[in-house]
Structure formats: structure tokens, C-alpha cells
Amino acid sequence: MATSILSSTNIQNISENALDDNTMFIPTMLANKPTIPKQFFWPKSDTAPATGILDAPIIDLQGILTGDASSIEKQVDALRVTCKTHGFFLVVNHGIDTNILNETLDHAAEFFTMPLETKLNIVQKKGSMSGYSGAHSERFSDKLPWKECLSFKSGGSIEEFMGSSLGKEFEPMGLVYQKYSEAMKKLTLSIMQLLGLSLDVGKDYYREFFQDCGYIMRCNYYPRCPEPELTQGTGAHSDTVALTILQQEEVEGLEVFTGGAWQSILPVPGSLVVNIGDTFMAMTNDIYKSCVHRAVVNRHSSRRSIAFFVIPRDNKVIRAHDSLIGPNGKRLYPDFTWSELEEFTQKYHRVDENTLKCFAQRLRLLGSSSSE
User: Does residue 292 carry a pLDDT above 60?
Assistant: First the structure.
């Protein structure tokens, strides 16, 4: 059965790869309407405005990249403080070519302005993390986010994926995304060195653990919205991954809940926003925090961002270093793998601020029942 598109255009005879018996909501095609569909409504408690600016330190990576010990010590101290508080910081002098950053944003903008028929040729299939999504309406029917996404999960060539889905003329676009992902993976290892030093487990402990890491790269597009006070670009959640590296353009939209209030992260030219995710929080036994955050939209400007989610290799056991357990010897989370956590979020739990807690409870219940 063809998918129904709620917009000014109805597309018939969508391919078998499209989702069955669902209505797809495409924010880009709804931006000029006077109101938004009720499927995009969020509770008032979720849409309270930000009241301040987040105190997110700027971490200079020049020292870790060049081996300047005096510079590294200063950055490690700042990193330790913020990761124990809310887990968000900005990195500068990160070594990523500005051309790669700009080209990736530009190609994302180009993709999202393409005809819907083109985007649906690469629509995300059920059970897959790669492809196009309009407001995640292929998975959910209410509290839809006012955004469109194009995602790629590691494990194959993005260049080939784009070419096989959309045609060979899209391979150069895929190659840009591939180069971006490779650059971000390299950056990840440098950040992991600083995190290891900040937790006194050694510079190479996390770098070696994530040497063979995977990733999910996501291009986000948040169109301007006629009723931004009723919806969210991305609802409140904590990231289930180990680490997120975000490139955001000059339009504000990222907000963090800390100190009992929502606080904005202002874009800083040349910087990348990094935050601790649930998986890394578990690896520190909750010493470092994975903080709830969201993306908001506005009625005047669209917004783009590129999120790079760092994930461990599927079968690697995730557990806290012995030195981080504390005097009572209590581990706050059962051992788990990324593949188990990913399955939980795809089959049983919509990602929110309680994902890791609910996942840990499920693991304990499963462990308890298997031992009886």
C-alpha cells in the first residue's frame, strides 16, 4: 500500500521500500501552512522556553594534538568540571578542515530541498538506521519532531549507498559525507584521550576501547515552523550513544536542561559541540553526566545541524573501569553491549531522558529470570 503524504502534494505508487499503512508528515511541505497538524503537538511541560545561556567551556584541542603538556592539563581540568555537571562542552582547534565542515552542511541543505519523490527513494527501511526520515513518522504517530533527517550508520560505504539509492550522480555527495565521518572518527579518538586523562584512567584507555568504534551520522533539517510554541524540533532526551559531536550553524536551537531549567547553547564559529552520552556515563559509573537536551524551532528561520554519534563496536562489553567504582564497590549498571542497547531503543523504548535507567531495569529483570 502506498504511503500517504500529509502535505500539499500526494505521491502515489511509492516503492515497496516505503513504510506500509503510515502517514508521513513532511515539515518542509507544511512550513507555509498557518497551523501545524496535531501529530506535532507536544505537552506544555515539554515546551517551556529556555531561561538562560549554558556555561559550556571551550576546550582547546591544540595541546592534545601537538603533545603540549601544559596546555593539556588546563583543558583536562575544565573538562572534568563540566562533565561532572552536565557533560556539554565546545571544542576548538580540532583539526577538522573547514572545507569539509562547510561542504557537509551545504550538501545536507541541497538534499533537503530536493523533490519529495527523490528523498523517498532513500527512505529509511524498517529496522535500518540509514536513510531519509520525515519527522520519524515511520515509527511514531504522536509528538512528532518538526524536522527531517538523513542518517548513515557505519558498516558500509556512504558513497555507494547514495549512488545505489539515488543514482551515480549522488555519489559525490556521499563521498563528502564519508570524508566527514572519517574526520569525526579521528577527532573522537583525540577527545577520548582527554576524557581518559580527566578520569585518571590513562590517556589511551578510552582511545583504545573506541579505536574500532562505529558511528551514526545524521544530517538534521529543522524548517521554520508556523507554531513553534506547540512543538519541538527534537524532544527532550539524552543520547544513548557514547559521545555526540555536533556541528551547528549560526541559528540557535540546541538547549540543555540543567539546574532545573532549560539553557541555550549559543553557536560559536569554528567550534563543535560535544556531549557525553548514556553509554559513556555508564562507563564512568555515573561520574560523568549524560544530560537531557532538545532542539527547538522558530517561525522565522530554518536550521541545519550535523550530528555524529559515537558507538562502541557491537559486541564490546560496556562496563566501568575498576578505579571508578568507588569505596562501596557498587556498579550502577549491569554489563551490556551496544547491540543490546540499540535493540532496546528500536523495539521497546522511544528514546527519552529515562532510556538508560529503563534499559538497566530490563537487563536486571532478564538476568533475574534467567537465573531462576
Answer: yes
Q: Are strands 254-258 and 261-264 parallel, antiparallel or unpaired?
A: antiparallel
Q: Is 303 a catalytic residue?
A: yes
Q: State the Cα–Cα distance between residues 3 and 24, nearest whole angstrom.
A: 7
Instruction: Give CA separation, 338 vs 26, 234, 240, 342, 350, in Å.
Output: 31, 23, 9, 6, 16
DSSP assigned state of 94: -
pLDDT at 21 > cutoff 70: no
Element (DSSP H or E) covering residue 185? helix 171-198
Q: What residues pair up with 53 in beta bridges, in sequence order?
A: 264
Cell numbers at 347, concatenated: 523495539
- 70, 89, 64, 69: which is closest to 78 by C-alpha? 89
User: What is the pLDDT, as a whole number, of residue 129?
Assistant: 87
> Listing from the earlier edge strand, what are the strands of the sheet with 254-258?
52-53, 261-264, 254-258, 293-295, 234-237
| DSSP helix/strand/coil, 207 | helix
* 107-136 pLDDT per residue, tens: 999 999 999 999 999 998 877 889 998 877
Closest listed residue to residue 242, CA positions, set 137, 365, 341, 142: 341
Distance between CA atoms of residues 309 and 301, nearest Å: 25
CA distance 69 to 81: 19
- The closest alpha carbon to 86, from 55, 59, 61, belongs to 55
Q: Which residue in 303, 313, 319, 362 is the catalytic one?
A: 303
19: left (phi over 0), alpha (psi -120 to 50) or beta: beta
Residues 195, 335: Cα–Cα separation, whole Å: 21
